[in-house]
């Protein structure tokens, strides 16, 4: 009797082997397509704005600036805005992917552990107590707030005899987040100057940021990106459980601490530079997982490319919709992210903690 008559697929045992060999090629091809998409969106980000500038003039302003008004717009505004979008988008996407891996919840994001609220609370304190009025000053307060919040959440989540668990970290983050939001509301209502400044900063926008801000946050974002990518292997091991992960050479406590540090750097620097922007760190890793599966090496690499593509694409859309005015990118990502999140939840069963 033949294999087909016995109900065995015609390919036999070779079919799974062939699939395992094909999967990396498909992922690599998908990554190449993602890079091409990012290049197209970068070109649009530099070319599209409130003022119409021919593409040839844009290229001339990029590579052979002559000091004309159009060249200044391209060099000093659109190019800086695009580079900032690349850096911030990568930071938010990787921060979201790390949080989802650390909490074992594919719908988690940095806001779950109060990182964004910690950065915002520190900015409010800097405005109200130290009279910080420049965006360059917000960077340090936001980074400190994000780092302190990450430390507090991890300390609360590991307090006691038992080891840190995803549930304990989430509960600790929820408690810290609620306390920070209450503190932010209290400070902003008591101090009108803080409220007015925070209202402008908290919209979440790439517009109006100088190259000095980009230079300030870039070292923190680069450090966080390198650290996040280096944790891909240990996170894959911990996905099998702490005991098996330890047997494979991963150190659960060390991995979680380094993951928290990476999240603080990425989310703190991104939030300080452009304000809180939602859904990028939530939607992109979840959507990418449908293509890459749970392998953190592919997942983090895809997020590094597609997260800035989403952020810059949303920014370009915000410039077009109400032209010659603009919609802040935080508003656009919220409008795009909510229905996408609902669709993803409806299509797949989301693993519970």
SSE diagram, text form:
Layout: H1 14-47, H2 55-63, H3 69-103, H4 115-130, H5 135-158, H6 166-190, H7 192-201, H8 211-230, H9 232-238, H10 242-247, H11 252-274, H12 280-292, H13 296-321, H14 329-347
Helix pairs in contact: 1-3, 1-13, 2-3, 3-8, 3-11, 3-12, 3-13, 4-5, 4-6, 4-7, 4-11, 5-6, 5-11, 6-7, 8-11, 12-13, 12-14, 13-14
What does this structure look like?
- By secondary structure, this protein is mainly alpha-helical.
- The protein has a single domain (37-347), classed as ABC transporter involved in vitamin B12 uptake, BtuC (Orthogonal Bundle).
- It is 76% helix and 0% strand.
- It has 14 helices and no strands.
- The protein has helices at 14-47, 55-63, 69-103, 115-130, 135-158, 166-190, 192-201, 211-230, 232-238, 242-247, 252-274, 280-292, 296-321, 329-347.
- The chain is globular and about 65 Å long.
- Residues 1-15 have low confidence and may be disordered.
């Amino acid at each position: 009797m033949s294999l087909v008559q016995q109900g065995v697929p015609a390919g036999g045992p070779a079919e799974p082997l062939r699939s395992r060999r094909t999967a990396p090629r498909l992922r690599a091809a998908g990554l190449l397509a993602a890079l091409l998409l990012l290049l197209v969106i970068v070109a649009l980000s530099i070319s599209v704005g409130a003022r119409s500038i021919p593409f040839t003039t844009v290229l001339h302003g990029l590579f052979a600036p002559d000091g004309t008004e159009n060249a200044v717009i391209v060099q000093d505004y659109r190019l800086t805005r695009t580079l900032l979008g690349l850096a911030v988008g990568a930071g938010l996407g990787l921060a979201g992917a790390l949080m989802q891996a650390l909490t074992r919840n594919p719908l988690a994001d940095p806001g779950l552990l109060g990182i964004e609220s910690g950065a915002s609370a520190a900015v409010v304190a800097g405005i109200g107590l130290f009279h910080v009025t420049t965006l360059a000053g917000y960077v340090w307060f936001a980074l400190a707030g994000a780092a302190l919040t990450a430390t507090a959440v991890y300390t609360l989540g590991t307090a006691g005899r038992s080891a840190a668990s995803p549930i304990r970290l989430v509960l600790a983050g929820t408690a810290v987040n609620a306390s920070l939001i209450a503190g932010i509301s209290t400070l902003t209502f008591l101090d009108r100057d803080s409220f007015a400044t925070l209202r402008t900063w908290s919209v979440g926008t790439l517009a109006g940021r100088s190259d000095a801000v980009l230079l300030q946050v870039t070292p923190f974002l680069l450090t966080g990106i390198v650290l996040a990518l280096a944790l891909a292997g240990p996170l894959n091991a911990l996905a099998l459980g702490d005991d098996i992960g330890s047997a494979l050479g991963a150190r659960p406590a060390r991995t979680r601490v380094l993951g928290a540090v990476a999240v603080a750097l990425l989310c703190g620097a991104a939030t300080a530079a452009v304000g809180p922007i939602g859904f990028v760190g939530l939607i992109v890793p979840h959507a990418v997982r449908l293509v890459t599966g749970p392998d953190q090496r592919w997942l983090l690499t895809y997020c590094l490319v597609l997260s800035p593509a989403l952020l810059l694409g949303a920014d370009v859309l915000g410039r077009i919709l109400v032209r010659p005015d603009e919609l802040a990118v935080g508003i656009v990502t919220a409008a795009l992210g909510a229905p996408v999140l609902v669709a993803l939840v409806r299509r797949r069963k989301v693993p519970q903690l």
